[in-house]
Every structure is written in structure tokens, then in C-alpha cells.
Amino acid sequence: MPRLNTVFMILVVYIVCLRSDVHAQDRAVALASSVPPLSEQIVGQPAGPPPTPRHTGIKAMLKGLATDVEHLPSRENLLWVGVGSGLSLAVHPADDNVNQHLIGGGPADVFRPGRLMGALPTLFGTAATVYAVGRIKDEPRVSHVGMDLIRALAIAEGLTQALKYTVRRERPDQSGRNSFPSGHAADTFAFATALERHLGWRGAVPAYIFSSYVAASRLHENRHFLSDVVFGATVGIISGRTVTRQGHGPYPVDIALLPGGAAVMFSKRHYD
Predict the structure, then answer these.
(1) Whole-angstrom distance, CA of residue 253 vs CA of residue 265
(2) Which residues pair with 258 in a beta bridge?
(3) 79 in helix, strand or coil?
(4) Which long-range contacts (CB under 8 A, 24 or more apart) does 73-77 make?
(5) End-to-end CA distance of the chain
(6) In degrees rounded to 5, what are phi and psi of residue 249?
(7) Which residues, including other chains, have CB under 8 Å from residue 181's CB and lie 6 or more apart?
(8) Residue 34 contacts by C-beta under 8 Å, 6 or more apart in sequence?
(9) What is this structure's pTM?
(10) How far is the C-alpha of 38 from the C-alpha of 120, rounded, in Å?
(11) CA distance 122 to 7
(12) Residues 44-101: pLDDT tens digits?
């Protein structure tokens, strides 16, 4: 547990410092050049961080959470559901073989911390601490990060638990009928996706590596099948993108039918 607490505090400090550093660089670039920022150019990557709301208090967070639920049905989320379902079905035949190969393979100590590090209390504690630091220091941009992390986790947990008790899939270790989808994968990928929007890839790459590590640990411990983890990651991505999308919709996905195939298009759009 001391080691886990150390990792927890390092993660909080990293998020707070990187969030402040990213905006300091944005201001410096804006002052030094008249060239429009990347978020205003037509490029094949997401726009910058979502605009900081006027209020980041508890009331605003709860109101935002209600809006998140309202915005879950969308074409973009439907596309992600299709992608995640297709990948889950594609790997489903290999579920048993993957688990048999991973169980006991490699140093167990490497994966053991994943169960605690990717657990909801750890992630929620990190998000709540970032939010509290922002509120106490009167830094709305930092509290906005914490607020979106909390909301992303709440949406991911709600979707995950609804699916678990609807599908009722037996865990590979036969410890219960709540295997699909993986809650650890959903929560960590929701966390990483929200961070990607706020911090850019400098913050997202470590977060996605961490998410992948936690997902692998669930297979190594025989707590989930590969298809559980794949769809859990999809639930997390949907949750993180939904929370950070409304009010500022960068590059929503559209599918256009073309002769002999189809094209995926990203177009910048703002929501009123």
C-alpha cells in the first residue's frame, strides 16, 4: 500500500503540473505569433482542450453529469460501439487460448499492482484530488480536469455495471457472472481519454500505456477474457469522449459512402 500511495501522489502532481504547463505554452505561442493555433487549422488530429466552464463547483459537476447522460446517444458513440463490438467478436474465439497462455506466464509481480492501481477507488481518488487542488488553489483549469475525470469515471461505471448485470457472463475463474465488460479497462480508458483531451498526447501516452497495463493484468490474473477487456476499453473511450465533447465538438466522425467503399471523415463542428 505505501507503494500504491506513492504512485497515486505522483499521478496527481503530474496531472496538475502538466495541465498548467500546457496552457502556459499556449499563451506564449499566442503572444509570439499571429499564426492560428492548431485547433483552428484543418488538421487530422483533435482540437485543443475543451474551454474551461465558468463554474467548476459541485453543482456544475452534477449538472454536467446529467448533460453527459443526455449526450450519450450520438452518431460518434454509435460508431465506437460498432468498432468495439466488432473487435470483441473478432477476438472472442481466442478468449480461452489467450488466458491459458497468459496465466502464470512471466513475472506475476509485474502485473499484480494492476488490480489496485486500476481500481475505481484509486482512479476516483486521483480525480477527486486533482479537482480539490484546483478548487483550493482557485485554478479553474485544474479543477476542470478533475471534474471531467470524475464525470468520465461515473459514466464508465454506469455503463459497465448496466452491461455486467444484463449480459451476466461468467468470469474465466468462475468467481461470478459479471465478467463482461471489464470495469478496470473501462475506468482506466475513460480516465486516459479525458486526459488526452485536456493534456494532449504528452499526457495521454502515459495514461494509455497505464490503461493497457491494467487491462493486461486482468487477463494475467484470469479475471477477464480478452473480449471483456476490448469492449471495456471501448466503454471507457465513449465515456471520456462524451464528457469532453459537448459544447465544443472537435472533429466528429461521419461516414460517407463512396463508389466501391466508404470514407471516414472528421469535420470541425461547434454545438450551441
Answers:
(1) 6
(2) 261
(3) helix
(4) 74/242, 75/252, 75/253, 75/254, 76/241, 76/245, 76/252, 76/253, 77/238, 77/241, 77/242
(5) 46
(6) -100, 90
(7) 160, 163, 164, 228, 229, 231, 232, 234, 235
(8) none
(9) 0.75
(10) 34
(11) 10
(12) 344 567 788 888 899 999 999 999 999 999 999 999 999 999 999 999 999 989 888 8
d(CA 144, CA 136): 13
All three cell numbers of 189: 480508458
Spatial separation of the C-alpha atoms in residues 241 and 244, rounded to whole Å? 5
| Structure confidence by residue, pLDDT tens digits, 7-39 | 445 455 545 555 544 444 444 434 333 334 433
Going through the chain in order, the beta strands assigned E by DSSP cover 253-258, 261-266
What is the C-alpha to C-alpha distance for residues 41 and 47, in angstroms, rounded to an integer? 9
| Contact call for residues 229 and 217 (beta carbons, < 8 A) | no
Residue bearing cell 463547483:
57
CB atoms within 10 A of CB 139: 18
